[in-house]
Amino acid sequence: MNPTSVVLPAVKPAPSPYLSVVIPVFNEEDNLEELGRRLLGTLGQAGRPFEIILVDDGSTDRSWEIIAALHERHPEVLRAIQFHRNFGQHAAVFAGLAAARGQVVVTLDADLQNPPEEIPKLVAKIEEGYDAVGGWRENRQDSWLRRLPSRLVNFIMSRVTGVPLRDYGCMLRAYRREVVDSINLCHETSSFIPALANLYARRVTEIPVAHAPRAAGVSKYNLFKLLRLNFDLMTGFSNFPIHLVGVLGILIALMGLGFGLFLFIRRLFVGPEVEGVFTLFAILFVFVGLNTFGLALIGEYVGRIYREVRARPRYVVRQVLGGGQDQPGAP
Ligand code: UDP
Ligand code: MG
Predict the structure, then answer these.
(1) pLDDT at 238
(2) Which of 255, 323, 321 is nearest to 289 (CA)?
(3) Measured in whole angstroms, how far is the alpha carbon of residue 190 from the centre of its chain?
């Protein structure tokens, strides 16, 4: 069995929809009713077969009850997956992507910060021939404390993936089936889906989307959780931090060498300095530099091994409402 798969009871597949909308939900009891209403309104008008996949990321409030009630009312279009506990927003989106059957898949936040009414715009862009369409948040309605780390992410991700986007953090995005299939083949546990998608999409574009303040509840990201996400990003998509240590090591060693050379020349012309103390320093620097470099080299290998062993299950499913697939965790 594949390590990321979780076997579920077999369920009868429903006919394939054209559009799948994947939404991670973590303690959003006050937003779900309105979210459902607005989504069904917008998607219903678009006149294409669609499905909505709500992934409850181990909510501790009434979210799952509300989701189950929504599923009761709209069993043909609304499917739901419940995690055993909180595995994180991206794990929830991974589960949704694995369950999605549409030719076009849209991801969205549950807190109504991304207006569901923008979905047809994204789908239209995909139909123009793009593989992935991101939204960038016009007049972003978040505090500067929340926006600052996002800037850092955009900068790093643009460099690392080679796809400069202005808003990597915006989860209102659309992907073509092929891109979703590629994402589903990735096993890493901690990842960042918009960046992952850009590794596989050939044509990527961005369109401005509206952004509202959170409708109800509070942001599920505190500074610590954000830091962890950013670190996932950096280590998950590049070995940049450890490269930096390596370069630093080489620089220190070179500086030590230069210093030694300087002392040698100085000795020829001026005579020896105090008891050879500085010569010792120069030698020390060379070795400290080489040590640091060696450490970075080992780090590089450990990093690679770490990448390989990250095949732990990303999430564990407790229950699924609405059929269509056998193994939501499977690639
Ligand atoms: N979310 C989740 N699991 C988590 C944290 C968040 O599924 O551990 C969901 C959350 O319910 C929302 C989306 O991810 O639908 C974005 O979260 P939030 O609005 O708190 O983040 P922010 O808008 O502050 O970036
Ligand atoms: Mg939000």
Answers:
(1) 66
(2) 255
(3) 8
Write out pLDDT tens, residues 3-21.
454 554 444 445 689 999 9
Instruction: Say whether pLDDT at 182 is over 60.
Output: yes
What's the CA-to-centroid distance between 276 and ligand 1, angstroms?
Answer: 61
Number of H helices, E strands in the chain: 10, 8
Please give the distance of CA 228 from its chain centroid, rounded to a whole number: 11
**Using a 6 Å CB cutoff, which residues line ligand 1?**
24-26, 28, 57, 86, 88-89, 92, 109-111, 113, 146, 219-221
Nearest residue (CA) to ligand 1, atom 14: 89
Q: Where are the domains of the chain?
A: 19-221+313-321, 240-310
Q: How confident is the model at residue 328 (pLDDT cuts 50, 70, 90)?
A: very low
Residue with token string 């450490």: 295
Homologous superfamily of the 19-221+313-321 domain (CATH)? Spore Coat Polysaccharide Biosynthesis Protein SpsA; Chain A (3.90.550.10)
